[in-house]
Specification:
This protein is of the alpha+beta class. The chain has 25 helices and 12 strands.
């Protein structure tokens, strides 16, 4: 419980710090005023009256219009005919936030960030605490069981990264698993961009605390980042932006990946990357913005490359629409993009080379068909209020890949928004992104409730493209999730303005707009993640008894060896402060084929296959004389000093009696059966 309190305190500090950073004043946010003194009117947390700023901006716009009219006269052009006034005030600029006739219907100047905007990140933190409440209450004793062993795998990545830094070892490789060959961390989802800065916490409190903190802050900061982007870029009410952040940070896809995929949960950099790309497209400062973009891209590579790839696809699709309407200034965009690419390449060029060509690397890995069922796009996810988990399971790959499940109400709300605001280039671009990414997510062939419709999907065109071929098609709907949130915010704002205009007063529109937005989000309201008790780490490791049986340079063979379904041996390492490596493990590495294919886990040996068969059948399988020679050679290849079988391991009796035929009678101490095999692996340990 102590670490739960610490995580909460650190969460509040991190969210407040991020909120301050996102809302801090920048030179580009300044609005010049008619004042001979040097200085600017800054849109930061100042507490000034916004109507004063609106008055200044209106005055500037009027002056610009006058200068443009004078230039037309000087050039001999006919000035535009003034619109016939239809009532009082028609010759004045339109109210702030309401576009003039003929303008983009979502045009308008976003209201400046205020101190009250800090309430949004704090609210998101509370929602994140609600989603992870069972995990916060059992930091060391519980795990996210619907993610199978993914939580244990990522905790190991945090631990291995911290151990490498503490021992000044290569941060891109670890031999704590798959000993002695090791694991290429860059070729796995090692989240080095999180593990490195959080290494002190991991060394102090353990990887379990680091994992929980990343889950908590990942959800909250991702929602906060999208809230900030909507507030910064669009003229919508803060509460409409809040709804967009809720969907972007806590939609079904995000909650699903929170079952054990922090590389997808932490997407806080994505809205900042999008904002920087938009700045380049607008012709801002290309070199400075390019440098910042390059730094952000490099960091995101080390947090999650797949998220960066999905972001790039979304930007490319939306950018095509944006460019088709002449909204892109190509020279600064290309200049800034080149600078960004150069900066990112300098920072992560070698890690990327290591990932694809370094030790224990691979070129590609086979995945089963991973497209969305068409019904999944409007269905209900497992971790949503009132959902039927069996119906959800029938449509998705597993509990960590429920990437769409948007619900009918959200589609209706977004569809009405697109129809009402179709004149807006922003809405068109966003709508195209949603359609294209959802289409890509359907995979090679469209299915409906598990039945193939005979309609080819677009993935057949991409499945052989390098790098892209390793992406599961279902994950493309993660791109659509925040975009749907932005469209929902625009729809709420449009309804607010329309109702207020009809009622000729402020207030009713906001209430009705928020009510409509909440109704659209009701089918995707999340429920807390499922947490089950962890297997208890044997006292053999927690009390340090292992030190008497494992020499420097030796390893531990867990019985049966760790794999995708059982990674408890990785928790033994954390309890022992990463003092010993283990044979085999849960990771992705090369399968030894000429085409450099990848596989989950280590290449099987005769010994590991035999132990897995005994565990699965739960029957004693004696080792023959011929097998014993091969098994001992496997022990020597792995430099094994100790073979360890926990008392509470399923099929422990069959595994113990089978090993007796190979290694003789074991010692029984501190909750494990132990075979000290240093006499057999003479000189290897």
């Amino acid at each position: 419980m102590t670490w739960s309190v610490l995580a909460a305190v650190l969460g509040v500090v991190a969210v407040l710090g991020a909120a301050w950073w996102l809302g801090r004043q920048r030179p580009d946010d300044e609005v010049l005023v008619d004042d001979p003194r040097p200085g600017t009117y800054r849109t930061a947390f100042r507490g000034y009256r916004t109507d004063q700023v609106d008055e200044v901006v209106d005055r500037l716009e009027a002056r610009i219009a006058e200068r443009e009219a004078e230039l037309r006269v000087l050039r001999g052009e006919a000035p535009p005919a003034p619109a016939a006034p239809t009532g009082p005030g028609e010759d004045e600029p339109p109210p702030r936030g309401r576009p003039a006739p003929g303008r983009d219907p979502v045009a308008g100047r976003p209201a400046p960030l205020r101190r009250t905007d800090l309430l949004a990140p704090l609210a998101y933190l509370l929602v994140a605490a609600y989603v992870t409440m069972h995990l916060l209450g059992a930091v060391r004793t519980g795990y996210l069981s619907q993610g199978v062993q993914d939580q244990q795998a990522f905790e190991w990545y945090f631990g291995a990264t911290a151990h490498n830094l503490a021992t000044l070892s290569n941060p891109l490789l670890s031999d704590l698993q798959n000993f002695p060959a090791g694991v290429n961390l860059m070729a796995n989802a090692a989240v080095l961009g999180l593990g490195v800065p959080l290494a002190p916490l991991t060394l102090l409190a353990g990887p379990e605390v680091t994992f929980v903190l990343v889950e908590l802050l990942g959800l909250a900061l991702t929602a906060s980042g999208w809230y900030w982007l909507v507030r910064r870029r669009l003229a919508v009410h803060p509460l409409a932006a809040f709804l967009a952040g809720l969907l972007a940070g806590f939609g079904p896809g995000m909650v699903s990946h929170a079952n054990g995929h922090p590389n997808f949960v932490v997407q806080a950099l994505v809205p900042v990357v999008v904002d920087r790309v938009l700045r380049l497209a607008e012709g801002r400062r290309p070199v400075r913005d390019g440098v910042v973009l390059g730094l952000l891209v490099a960091w995101q590579v080390l947090v999650g490359e797949e998220v960066l790839l999905l972001t790039a696809v979304g930007l490319l699709v939306g950018g095509v629409v944006w460019a088709a309407h002449g909204r892109v200034r190509w020279r600064p965009l290309l200049t800034g993009g080149g600078v960004a690419g150069l900066v990112a390449l300098v920072l992560v060029g070698f890690p990327l080379w290591w990932q694809f060509l370094g030790p224990q690397s691979y070129a590609s890995i086979w995945h089963p068909p991973g497209g969305n069922d068409l019904a999944q796009l409007w269905g209900r996810a497992t971790r949503t209020v009132g959902a039927d988990p069996w119906a959800s399971a029938a449509l998705s790959m597993n509990r960590t890949e429920e990437n769409s499940f948007f619900g009918v109400a959200l589609w209706v709300a977004v569809g009405l928004t697109v129809v009402a605001l179709w004149r807006s280039v922003v809405v068109r671009a966003l709508a195209v992104v949603v359609v294209v990414t959802c289409w890509l997510s359907l995979g090679e062939e469209v299915t409906l409730h598990g039945t193939a419709l005979g309609i080819p999907g677009p993935w057949a065109l991409l499945e052989l493209v390098p790098v892209v071929q390793n992406v599961l098609p279902t994950r493309f709907t993660l791109v659509a999730l925040p975009v749907l949130g932005v469209l929902l915010a625009l729809g709420v704002e449009h309804l607010r303005r329309a109702v207020d205009r009809l009622a000729d007063q402020t207030g009713p529109g906001l209430a009705l707009g928020l009510a409509a937005g909440v109704v659209a989000l009701l089918p995707v309201v999340p429920t807390p993640l499922v947490v089950d008790p962890r297997p208890v780490v044997p006292a053999f490791f927690t009390q340090g008894t292992w030190r008497d049986h494992v020499d420097d340079g030796g390893s531990v063979l867990a019985v049966p060896p760790p794999n995708v379904a059982d990674a408890r041996a990785l928790e033994w390492q954390a309890a022992a402060r990463w003092g010993f490596p283990v044979v085999a493990g849960y990771f992705v590495g090369p399968n030894g084929s000429p085409d450099r294919g990848g596989q989950y886990g280590a290449t099987p040996t005769g010994l590991t296959v035999w132990l897995a068969q005994v565990a699965q059948a739960d029957v004693v399988v004696p080792a023959s004389a011929q097998e014993r020679a091969g098994f001992v050679e496997n022990l020597r290849d792995g430099r094994v000093d100790a073979v360890v079988l926990p008392d509470d391991r399923p099929a422990a009796g069959s595994l113990r009696d089978s090993l007796v035929t190979l290694l003789g009678d074991p010692q029984h101490l501190d909750g494990v059966y132990l075979w000290d095999v240093r006499r057999l692996t003479d000189g290897a340990g």
